[in-house]
Design goal:
Elements lengths: L10 H13 L6 H25 L17 H23 L4 E2 L6 H10 L9 E2 L6 H26 L16 E3 L6 E9 L5 E9 L6 E4 L23 E10 L2 E10 L5 E11 L5 E3 L4 E5 L5 E5 L2 E6 L6 E4 L4 E8 L13 E12 L2 E5 L36
Parallel strand pairs: 11-17
Antiparallel strand pairs: 1-2, 3-4, 4-5, 5-6, 7-8, 8-9, 9-10, 9-13, 11-12, 14-15, 15-16, 16-17
């Protein structure tokens, strides 16, 4: 007779059945009893195996899902599209008579490349040739505009492919690609330099999904006032190049804080901190009343902003970014070069001190001074070792301890 290993739950049933069969041996033939015992054993074994499959495993083995990727045919096509996109972007950004010092590319291309590389500062200086052929420059602009208009549908064709979200577009270095920490979406942004120092921005939000789910962004900065209160949509987006995204959660809602750069014109630049949320239907919304500040330039008046700007002269390079060590947003305090320029933001530059925003439960709270101690010399930085770089001049520290 086969021997089976049964659980404690079925052992009493099996033992009682065996005892009943043994008592009944005089009444039945041995063959008949053995046949029923085998059938009963198989039945109990089947019930035991079924119960073990239904029970949770004591030591679960983690399974790693296969890496999501494009099919071979789509990957081959995507590589070809990326090459075409790169050629078009080279025309959009670099085909101009406006020069960058020591570089043969225009200012727009230099800024895009700086932002796409993960840097939030740009120290690129622009210059123009002594004599510019207006007709030649006009032809160049029309060529760049045509390339930009060709770039957009070709990019959409690439994003239409299944699992295109997982394709990094590494060759498109001039297109900024930023992801939030949860990787639920990515934002692709770029800019085009228009005549007379104007810039236009383009962007698209791509959600993480197998099928294409995108939200094209329409830059309407020229039709909007310089605002900090309005909540905007994808159809009236405040155009900029994004260089970082962080996220915060409150009341089961995720708020994405965006860091962006805007070349307003040839005179001034802006860096922007904005809030991105998604409605119940998935539509993006830009701006939320989460920035609570008491700006000293406004006589300590408490205010709540939906987004935050700093504006400065084109040759300055102030910092506006999230500092992981301090767990807060840190930015350069900007000041005019002299009292007569107060309020003329296109002349502002960093003065060596830092302000910031700290997340407090459900909003960003303004911090007037990131560093609370200073050095007793006016031309030294506010801390011995500044957060962003080492000063040229260090304080003279005493050699002996005073008693």
């Amino acid at each position: 007779m086969p021997v089976f290993i049964l659980s404690d739950r079925f052992y009493p049933i099996f033992a009682n059945t065996m005892y009943a069969c043994i008592i009944s041996l005089p009444l039945f033939s041995l063959f008949y009893v053995m046949k029923h015992l085998i059938v009963l054993s198989l039945l109990l074994l089947s019930v035991h195996i079924f119960a073990q499959k239904g029970a949770p495993a004591r030591s679960a083995i983690s399974t790693v899902s296969p890496k999501v990727q494009l099919s071979k045919s789509d990957l081959s096509r995507m590589v070809r599209l990326e090459d075409s996109l790169q050629k078009l972007m080279n025309i959009v950004l670099y085909d101009s008579t406006v020069r960058v010092v020591d570089k043969s590319i225009d200012y727009a291309g230099a800024v895009i490349r700086s932002m796409a590389s993960g840097k939030d500062d740009s120290t690129v200086f622009i210059t123009a040739p002594a004599k510019v052929d207006s007709n030649s420059e006009k032809r160049r602009f029309e060529k760049r505009k045509t390339a930009c208009y060709q770039f957009i549908p070709k990019l959409i064709s690439a994003l239409k492919m299944d699992n295109s979200f997982y394709y990094p577009f590494d060759s498109l270095q001039e297109v900024s690609k930023v992801y939030p920490p949860d990787s639920s979406f990515r934002i692709l942004t770029w800019q085009m330099h228009y005549p007379k120092g104007r810039f236009r921005y383009y962007g698209v939000i791509q959600m993480r999904s197998q099928k294409m789910k995108i939200y094209p962004l329409r830059d309407l900065r020229d039709t909007l006032p310089f605002h900090t209160q309005r909540v905007l949509t994808k159809d009236n987006w405040y155009g900029q190049i994004y260089y970082r995204i962080i996220e915060r959660t409150y009341a089961k809602k995720t708020y994405y804080t965006l860091f962006g750069f805007e070349a307003a014109d040839f005179i001034s630049r802006r860096k922007i901190v904005d809030i991105l949320t998604f409605d119940a239907d998935g539509s993006p919304r830009f701006g939320a009343p989460l920035f609570c500040s008491t700006d000293s330039s406004r006589y300590k008046i408490r205010d709540t902003l939906s987004r935050f700007f700093i504006e400065y002269k084109w040759s300055a390079s102030p910092t506006l970014n999230y500092d992981n060590n301090k767990d807060m947003i840190v930015y350069d305090h900007l000041a005019p070069p002299n009292p007569k320029a107060n309020g003329v933001y296109m002349a502002y530059a960093q003065d060596g001190t830092y302000e910031g925003y700290k997340w407090k439960t459900n909003h960003w709270e303004w911090v007037e001074k990131v560093f609370n101690f200073a050095i007793n010399e006016n031309d030294n930085p506010p801390i011995p070792a500044p957060l962003f770089g080492i000063p040229k001049k260090q304080p003279n520290l005493p050699q002996e301890v005073e008693h």
